[in-house]
Amino acid sequence: LAKTTQPISMDSYEGQEVNITCSHNNIATNDYITWYQQFPSQGPRFIIQGYKTKVTNEVASLFIPADRKSSTLSLPRVSLSDTAVYYCLVGDNLKAAGNKLTFGGGTRVLVKP
Amino acid sequence: NAGVTQTPKFQVLKTGQSMTLQCAQDMNHEYMSWYRQDPGMGLRLIHYSVGAGITDQGEVPNGYNVSRSTTEDFPLRLLSAAPSQTSVYFCASSRGLGDTEAFFGQGTRLTVV
User: Fold this and answer.
1) Burial class (CB in 10 A: 0-12, 13-18, 19+), B67
2) Half-sphere exposure (CA, 13 Å, Cβ side) for B73?
3) Which residues of chain B have a CB within 8 Å of the CB of A100?
4) Any idea of the CA torsion for B21, B22, B25, B26, to the nearest 10 degrees?
5) How do strand B108-112 and strand B10-13 relate by DSSP bridges?
6) CB-based contact A79:B73 (threshold 8 Å)
7) Cα B65 from Cα B87, distance rounded (Å)
């Protein structure tokens, strides 16, 4: 599985856009990029997944450059409730499925008033 | 729709005791898995199952046992609790092959003294 590197923590303010970049230099051809969010005392929650270019849903956007060696999760206009740990995962959907996820340390995002 | 339900939410054990952490899902998911999360760390896979009657080891299986007699339930047994097993345990389920969107339970916080 491709190793991922992401910042340990980030601070932001309400209403700002938060961008978290994840490096995955040895990503394989079949690998997808998936982001999870974890609030304190809760299990992780799936946010978004992509393979290339840009993916957007009601929660976030995921930007993946052509070389796929990094990806950026973008959270628009954050609120205090977006304070959480965000995990970047890279893996082959067909092999890993949803039950063999490899989590790194994640990025702790603190949104301030 | 309850999703993934874990019981108990909190448990204190003495060293050497055994216990079973319960996990049930009502989404008819094929895949289920158990993770542990130590303070400030990401989740690590303990055991997983790709269907009733089929289980396999994850990254940190020692000291734990699982079985999958039904699609809905996936209990995790601690055979002889040790202080190193103090952690938060999460159960997750997903639809199946090719799907990396996992649904997590609320977790069980276990302390072994």
Assistant:
1) middle
2) 10
3) 33, 45, 48, 58
4) -170
5) parallel
6) no
7) 16
Tell me the per-residue pLDDT of A34-83, one tens digit each, with 9 for 90 and over: 999 999 989 999 999 999 999 999 999 999 999 999 999 999 999 999 99
pLDDT digits (tens, 9 = 90+) for B44-91: 999 999 999 999 999 999 999 999 999 999 999 999 999 999 999 999
d(CA A18, CA A104): 20
Tell me whether residues A104 and B105 touch, CB distance under 8 A: no
Per the CB < 8 Å rule, is B100 touching A102? no
User: Hey, what are B64's tokens?
Assistant: 């734990």
Q: Name every chain B residue with its beta carbon within 8 A of the beta carbon of A93.
A: 98-100
Count of CB pairs separated by less than 8 Å, A with B: 85
